[in-house]
Amino acid sequence: MKLDHLGPRFGADVHDIDLDRATDDELAEVRAALVEHKVLFFGGQQLDDDGQVRLGRRLGELTASHPVVGGVDEAHPEVYALDSADNGFADVWHTDVTFMPRPPLGSILRAVVLPPSGGDTNWADSQLAYESLSAPVRDLADRLTAVHDGNREFGYYLAQRRGGKGSVWDGEVVTRLDPVEHPVVRVHPETGRRGLFVNPGFTSHIVGVSEAESRGILDLLYAHLTKPEHIVRHRWRAGDVAMWDNRSTAHYANRDYGTAHRVMHRITLRGDVPVGPH
Length: 278
Known about the structure:
By secondary structure, the chain is of the alpha+beta class. The chain has a domain at 2-124 and 151-175 and 232-269: Double-stranded beta-helix. It is built from 6 helices and 17 strands. Residues 5-268 form the TauD/TfdA-like domain.
């Protein structure tokens, strides 16, 4: 397995591996590389939905497709279809499913239908972003807690399209999206590195400060998280698969392809409860 690094510590193209036929040792290498490089790209793969699910089960425990949105079909309840023809856009910076008490460990995304051009996806390194903050701002962020709320994005979908009954997540049927609190700085459970764990998609406010202070703090952190030196960008090709560590990244899908069709299939690995520095 050969890695071409996209940055000193963030992002890598992986060569010479067939994910559908990989050995246990090869997948152990992939799993270690995922933690180290945070987002990995694999070209020329031949995965279908069955193969994607098999791969996910070899790398960890799969979740339902999404707490609110059902699977792509009855045979694949783990596969979340992001279809531009059905409002399947992700054109806001976010980290997957942080509005649940136990967000996913990571995600595996497969290109199914690509537009003739556009539709690139960007990932931000939340650990590098944290480490490049000035020391006083890091100290402040270390002590903060934020609220994450999925209602803004998925509340209507749960009520109107799922009839108030979502998927089974962590052993319980999701019937409402109660806001949850997570530390603003998350300590990675495998490396101990700290990273920013707030995102414009799902973070609503900082706990214990005024609305104006919350808005100012979050705007500062978002602007810093998405600085160009913290980002890698992937131009999709047929057969591409991306994996990312949800505990140390945020991502954004460009919505620049007009009325062209774009379909991506995603699965997520069960994660743990975020833990902060204190």
